[in-house]
Design brief:
Length: about 375
């Protein structure tokens, strides 16, 4: 079939919205008509080559935070059917590999094909350009398309009356941020928490920390708009820089330092991580959720403090969460009024406006932009 998609033809070139050829789903796959897709910073990393080697090279279809309705199912698919409303988890969960069996499906072995962007079961492509090129898929999904074919391991069925425009956010940003606080940092009642970066991921880390009972939740971001929004998500204090937050340690934490520091910047770097490390007090957990460039080889961390203060640096992928448990759970919390998804969506766009949406993200104008499909 023919459909339209936003294709990255070359690194650092605008997304090209064009007609593509899409093959039908094969064994274990489904064809989905997209309803909505979030404009996440991780796709910006693919655009600028910052995470080269972790995602397929150009040409590729971007997008990994999406929701839609199943139009066709391939052979062997038994848990999904035509008409089902679904959310994609940006990391597949096969349920069989050692990580899935050990309760860590966010590290599923099926994600090993991320670098090629091919279908999980046979390593081939379903998406093709009109000029004969195979198209890789961001996170095996390619949600910047009107239709896409994905493996059932990446698909979570939801109730048909749940809003798909909000649901797309649960495929990455919401669960990643919330889980970074609740699962990775293990925020406890009475903790002092600092969140460095108050965008799409950081806003949800703030929500998670608040819901876990943190005594104070500090949002650190240079953009005033994001600091203001952070207060709506549960921040108790905001600062424009790590330096400003460091100067206020006595005011906020009685000079003890933060129990949990969660890194959710658009792009991580070793120098900033070292500065944030110093915000942590004794036995602090420093959670690194934001991506660092694959070319970065060092982090500026004072090693003596790892020992003397028993600090910990913890990596967090998808917030250490489980797509099959946490996506439905957090959606139900939203429907119960306990989780704020509405204020995460700053502006909606059409597929043709994708470059406008990413320009707004670069300028710090959006918490999250969302593409709405017809």
């Amino acid at each position: 079939m023919k459909t339209r998609a936003a294709v990255l033809r070359e690194v650092n070139q605008p997304w090209s919205v064009e007609e593509i050829e899409l093959d039908p789903p094969k064994r274990g796959e489904v064809l989905v008509k997209m309803a909505a897709s979030g404009l996440c910073h991780s796709d910006e990393h693919a655009y600028d080559g910052h995470i080269a080697g972790l995602v397929p090279g150009a040409p590729m279809i971007g997008g990994h935070e999406g929701s839609g309705v199943i139009q066709e199912v391939g052979e062997g698919v038994t848990d999904l059917e035509v008409g089902d409303h679904v959310i994609f988890g940006f990391i597949p969960a096969c349920g069989r590999c050692p990580s899935c069996a050990d309760g860590h499906s966010n590290l599923c072995d099926a994600a090993a094909t991320f670098t090629e962007g091919t279908q999980i079961l046979d390593g081939t492509h379903r998406h093709h350009t009109h000029d004969g090129l195979d198209l890789g898929l961001m996170c095996l999904l390619g949600t910047f398309a009107e239709h896409t074919v994905v493996n059932e391991a990446s698909v979570i069925k939801i109730d048909k009356d749940w809003p798909l425009d909000k649901g797309c956010l649960l495929g990455c940003g919401v669960v990643t941020g919330w889980g970074s606080a609740v699962y990775s940092a293990q925020v406890e009642p009475g903790d002092y928490v600092a969140v460095v970066g108050a965008g799409g991921i950081g806003s949800n880390a703030i929500q998670g920390a608040k819901m876990a009972g943190a005594r104070a939740v500090v949002a650190i971001d240079p953009i005033e708009f994001k600091r203001e929004k952070a207060m709506a998500f549960g921040a108790t204090h905001t600062f424009a820089s790590i330096e400003d937050a460091q100067a206020a340690l006595g005011e906020v934490t009685w000079d003890r330092g933060y129990d949990k520091v969660i890194m959710t910047m658009g792009t991580g770097d070793g120098k900033t991580l070292g500065e944030a490390f110093n915000l942590g007090g004794k036995r602090a957990k420093i959670v690194v959720t934001n991506l660092h460039g694959t070319a970065e080889g060092t982090m500026e961390i004072p090693g003596i403090m790892l020992t003397m203060f028993e600090k910990q640096i913890i990596g967090s992928l998808f917030g250490s969460a489980n797509i099959r448990k946490d996506i439905p759970m957090l959606f139900e919390m939203y429907l119960a009024g306990q989780l704020n998804l509405d204020d995460l969506i700053t502006k909606t766009y059409t597929l043709d406006q994708i470059n406008e949406g990413y320009e707004a993200m670069r300028n710090g104008e959006n918490i999250r932009g969302v593409i709405i499909f017809d």
